[in-house]
Write a structure and sequence with these properties.
This protein has 444 residues and is mostly helical. The chain has 16 helices and 2 strands.
Length: 444
Amino acid sequence: MRRPLRNPARIVPIAFLGAITVGTGLMMLPASRSGPDPAPFVTALFTATSAVCVTGLAVTDTSTYWSPLGLALITVLTQLGGFGIMSLATLLGLLISRRLGLRSRLTAQAETSSLGLSDIRQVLLRIALIMLGCEAAITLLLAGRLWSAYDYPPARALWYGLFHAVQAFNNGGFALYSDGLVRFVGDAWICLPLIIGVVIGGLGFPALFELVRERRRPARWSVHTRLTIWGTLALICAGFLCFLTFEWTNPRTLGPLDLPSKLLAALFQDVMTRSGGFNTVDTGALNPETTAISIGMMFIGGGSASTAGGIKVTTFFLLAFVIWSELRGEHDVVIGHRRIAGASQRQALTVALIGVALVGTSTLALLSLTHQFAPEQVLYEATSAFATAGLSTGITGDLPAAAQLLLVVLMFVGRIGSVTLGSAIALNTRRKRFHYPEERPIVG
């Protein structure tokens, strides 16, 4: 009989809960806060959850509320959360493949170029090398810019560079400035490294590994990598154009900026909306059209087995292909000369609908707990928590404790939910030896 804790679908949430519990205790230490009193339980819990779940939402001013020890703890928790997400998601796929028959394993390996069970050690090593390499490069670029252009002392420049590099690659979103990164809205040497870090971290290790290995032969990419890479590029381009169009004349966002700064700010905010969490404009001052698009972008999120949240790019575009095939009356869903299994289609639909249900019910619950905020602000907050995007219209700290605890639950479920749900579905798949009579209800 299989022991319950050996089920990967149960190990993941238990591991994250353990990290959040330890993190909360450490954040409540008097030495973790810059003031004379230790942080309250809800504040410490919210911050630890936001860090471990690489969200970036904060109920306090991160730069002034926490001491150097507290900021170091946020950095460590974010790093652990980011590495754990990528490694656990990849290992879950390998653990699941062990349960498949030999023919199914060989077929899956041939079609997706997936790794075998003997590569687990190499997988974790490559994840660590990619993560640490990207973070080191971003740290040096940011530190050099802060030292040369903003007269930061070398030690302070290195610390600020390291903190924001870890947040960028892990899609964390915490910043050491009270206004986010608004002061750097036109500085490409600050914004572009952060954009690159967020995009790389948000692609996911499976897509990154195949992208590097088959960089000269895109035709050999698996369906997963194609959906992730081309889907990410499509969303970046679409979001950039929408943000630029709707905010061009907004006097509180892009309006006062010159042309290069407008282009950079639109690109930066577009990329960060899908899970990065940083901001160089006031997200609370966005036009309604941009806010609606941002909610959609946050809900989609980044790539599977990545540091990003949301329902994932592959889920969104797979459902788009399903709809397109249904509209054309085609029996099979085909992407890149590969027929998509019905089980994958059902899993994508399940993940998307559960995400809609969680965001919808959480929004209603938040509205019932607080009445001084507009519904679109509350929806933005709930979507940001579920998608671990970390952006806010500025209401997080003003929410009552009960609403903040609800966001804690939403961040936790949003981070581990899709991974756990996907593995649970795969592990619980059983082949029935009979079929019921078929019937077609009226749809539409």
